[in-house]
Amino acid sequence: MWISRQIIDAAKRWPAAELTEVTGSAAMQGANAYRGVPMASSWGIDSLPPNSAQAVVVQTGSGIACIGVLSEGHGLEAGELLLYSAGGAEIYLKNSGEVVINGQVFAAKKEG
Question: Does the CA dihedral 88-92-98-99 come out positive or negative?
């Protein structure tokens, strides 16, 4: 009985989220090692973070899931979006309406 209570109490102390380091494909290391962790993302966007990225894992009703990685701080302004790969490809949507693809600037569409 005492051991069962300790196990139940330990499970209740699970943090709301844990910051981990990506150590491989669907693998993270934090206070515990996690393997086969599914990645949660917006529909239509699929990514697999590179090793050493700082990933956030949470406990769900179906097990552990990674809900994302910490931003690398690319100096974006509020409202801007940057898609990038580990290989250096980038698509930058700027507040000015410009789209920058791998350094090539495309002007905002003018209405009228």
Answer: positive
DSSP 39: B
Predicted local distance difference test score (pLDDT) of residue 39? 93
Average pLDDT over residues 59-71: 90
Chain segment 82-96, per-residue pLDDT in tens: 999 999 999 999 999
Determine the Cα–Cα distance for residues 64 and 92; give it in Å rounded to an integer. 31
Reference 56, options 70, 42, 74; nearest CA is 70
Instruction: Dig out the tokens for 53 from the structure.
Output: 């990225």
Cβ neighbours for 109, distance < 8 A, ≥ 6 positions apart: 97
Is the pLDDT score of 11 beyond 90?
Answer: no
Q: How far apart are CA 65 and CA 8, in angstroms?
A: 21
What residues contact 37, with CB distance under 8 A and at least 6 apart?
A: 26, 27, 28, 57, 64, 65, 66
